[in-house]
Amino acid sequence: MILKEREIPLLIHYFEALLRRLPRKSNLRSKIEENLLKAWAGYHGECKADRHISTIDNNHDTFILNDLCLPISNSFFQIDTLILTSKYLLILEIKNIAGSLEFDNEFEQFSRSLNGEIKGFPNPISQANRSKIHLKQWFHKKKLPTLPIEFLVVFTNSSSIITSVNQNEMTKNKAIKIDNLVAKYLTIQRSYSSIPPFLELKEQRRIANQLIKDHSPYSNYKRYPEEILSGVRCIQCEQFNMVRKIRSWYCNDCGLFDKNAHQQALYDYLLLVNPTISNQQAREFLGVESSRVSYRLLNLTNLTPQGKGKGRTYSFPENHHNIF
User: Fold this and answer.
1) 199-252, pLDDT tens digit by residue?
2) Is the pTM of this model over 0.85?
């Protein structure tokens, strides 16, 4: 049973907003385009793993939570997929990387060879093991019953080849190709078949609800207030030359009328400039002179207000995915 669906990451919306708002000749564009492609590849790899998991006939007491970002000390840790059962927890660290992939277990290194270039990456087994440690800490802090925690690193790119410099049991048992995910999952499931449940269903649901409650999408991205273009962008000709006209937005370049053109501009501001926006900041960014018009536009957009009067600001709602 999926209790938390996988959604397009906020990071993808952030990169797309940057590409909309940065000048065409900006030196940052090529790197951002590269990062956007990587983010989409990661998301598609995770969706591929979801499809494989969906083919398993799980019991009613198997809960799946995708894309968790949980607080730990003064930071956060992320889990691509967490499977919660009455007997154990299973973390899936999902990677969509092409090429020849090599683990060096002696130095805990991980590298990729592709088109004659060798590049180092963070070791995904170390990443998954760190998530396991942090998840234990989270359970302890919340005073929840502890469960055995398993993890797997799942490589979803069909063209990748996995090798190991010094083969050990950790790499052999934890790093798998996507085609082996179902079989490996069932092997883990069978290894707990003779063990009585640690949790009753009611308690299991309580843990799942606490995980969802504590989830906080990571949004501490680099801000570019001085480099990005302000104004309302036309979705037809992609120029920043729209003005308020007859209770709508009119593009002086192509003649398009669009009542909702301000929404994307406000979302871009929150992603790229500041996580909150005031009436005055909205007027300046949208190019609107009237505070009443700005007030109406802000309140017609699905943003969450905080404060009163001149101190009122607006931000993304808790479930920001509903507005993109």
Assistant:
1) 999 999 999 999 999 998 777 778 777 789 999 999 999 999 999 998 999 999
2) yes
Mention every residue, 6+ apart, whose C-beta is less than 8 A from residue 44.
96
Residue 69 confidence (pLDDT): 94
What is each CA distance from 117 to 101, 102, 114, 120, in whole angstroms? 12, 13, 5, 10
Give 242-323's CATH code, choosing from 1.10.10, 1.10.3470, 1.20.120, 1.10.12. 1.10.10
What is the spatial distance between Cα 21 and Cα 267, in angstroms, rounded to a whole number?
12
Q: Is 106 exposed, middle or buried (0-12, 13-18, 19+ CB in 10 A)?
A: exposed
Question: Taking the domains of the chain in order of start, what are their residue ranges?
Answer: 2-214, 242-323
- Phi and psi at residue 245, to the nearest 5°: -155, 120
H or E element in which residue 149 lies:
strand 149-155
Query: Residue 60 has which token pair?
Result: 């009613």
- The side-by-side arrangement of strands in the sheet containing 277-278 is 277-278, 313-315, 304-306
